[in-house]
Amino acid sequence: QMDNKRQAMYNSPLYITENDNGDICASDDEKQAVVVVSKAGQHRFSYRGQEPEFHPYGICTDCSGNILISVGLLSNGTVEIISQDGHFLSRLFAMDQEITSPRCVCVSDKNNLYVGQEMSNKVKVFKYEFK
């Protein structure tokens, strides 16, 4: 499993999801990237976040094919949204507010965003409407 530069695609994949277009998206905290491959297994892109230090954990997709990534350290965190082509679209929370140590994320068919937090052992629910 090599990328376009003949480098190993994964070091330690943590979470995985399939997008509506058939792409497989995997978070890899050790590699500090979200790695996306086509349904044929071809490397499409690796997303490395908006900050110098990127710790992706849980990932999911919404009904538009956008990829949501829970990103965080022990004391703070956020959820980043990227397009199905790997372009940064938005950050849902500032790194110092609302959620701490997010580890998993899910969007329901009723447009609820669930964010699981490791240190507090809580799941927060937000209304999700991204266009």
UniProtKB/TrEMBL annotation:
GO terms for biological process: proteasome-mediated ubiquitin-dependent protein catabolic process; protein polyubiquitination. InterPro entries: 6-blade_b-propeller_TolB-like, TRIM-NHL_E3_ligases. It comes from the Eukaryota. GO terms for molecular function: ubiquitin protein ligase activity. This is Tripartite motif-containing protein 2. It comes from Magallana gigas.
